[in-house]
Amino acid sequence: MVGTTGSLKQELQEYPVAKKKIIGNILFQLFYIYLKTRMVISTYRNSNCRLIKMQDKLKWNAVGLVKKTKLLKNYIEREKQEKESLPAHQKERTAPLSGYLRELNHMLEQMEKIEKIIILKLEKLFHLKFQTPEMIMLALTRPSIRTIFENLNAHFKDDPNRPLSEEELMELASSGDAAVVLALIGDAALDLAIVQTLWDSSLSKTGELTEKRKKLASNENLAIYCDEWGLYSSRLHRLQIIPDEKMKKETVEHVKGTLVESIFGVVYLEFKLKELLRIVPLIQ
Q1: What is the pLDDT of residues 254-283, one digit of tens each?
Q2: Which sequence spans correspond to the domains of the chain?
Q3: Which of 4, 162, 265, 279 would bridge 156 by S-S if both were Cys, CB 3.0 to 4.6 A apart?
Q4: Residue 252's Cα: distance from chain center in Å?
Q5: How far apart are CA 236 and CA 214, in angstroms?
Q6: Are 129 and 77 within 8 A, CB to CB?
Q7: Beta partners for 236?
Q8: Residues 213, 195 contacting (CB under 8 angstroms)
Q9: CA 36 – CA 29 distance, rounded (Å)
């Protein structure tokens, strides 16, 4: 038996070889665990840095959606008035111009609704101030508006005084595509936020976590909040769309769920995951 006095060297010399090996193995395992822990912490920190850098890169410049749409509307109105004032035998067809004006006026009405009602409602609900309010308009823009701006671009093809360049019109035409990307970002960020919100350290609750996440992120659940927040009726889209009564319930819920995901995409881009974590309980 090892004595309670004497140097550590003497005590170790009195230990049987087998015990020395056991102690050596234990010390090696502890050192290995220490190195692995340091490596995990380092990896976590590096991942966070990469995530922050990635979030900083996910930025869009404002395209001036409202200003440019008004510019187009005013130009088409003047063009229509000029053609209507010409003699009958010199008049060109004004029907396409009337169609453009109906579409642009509808879009501007929706933009005003988003600007004066929806954005203020969301800011009050989320307790935050959007840095680029136009992002909310982009989030509510549907791909169908591409046709409007592409037709206008073709209309202005030979007009030397055209109000917007082809590049500017194509940028406006891509607004609906931006909404799709925002929904993609929002969907991924929402999944992560929901998991963190519902996380339970017990392995036995894993299945329960999966089911809760699935329910919260479902189109059926998100559609409820889409209606509460007034998003569906505020979409930026063409006038010629399929009426809701002719669409399947699942299709309408999918559209509504996508709109909510797009809004969450804006929140994530402007305020990062921290604010999204705070907002997630609103859809529980």
Answers
A1: 999 999 999 999 999 999 888 998 998 888
A2: 8-44, 112-283
A3: 162
A4: 19
A5: 29
A6: no
A7: 141
A8: yes
A9: 10
Chain position carrying tokens 């111009």: 97
Strand positions, DSSP E, the chain: none
- Say which DSSP state 239 is in: S
The pTM is what?
A: 0.75
CATH 3.40.50.2300 assigned to 112-283:
no
Whether the per-residue pLDDT at 137 is higher than 50: the answer is: yes
Listed in sequence order, the residues at least 6 apart from 182 whose beta carbon sits closer than 8 Å to its beta carbon are: 135, 138, 139, 261, 262, 265, 266, 269
Question: In angstroms, rounded to a whole number, what is the distance separating the alpha carbons of residues 183 and 226?
Answer: 13
Instruction: Give the C-alpha separation, 173 to 184, whole Å.
Output: 19
Distance CA 183, CA 223 (A): 14
Amino acid of residue 96: P
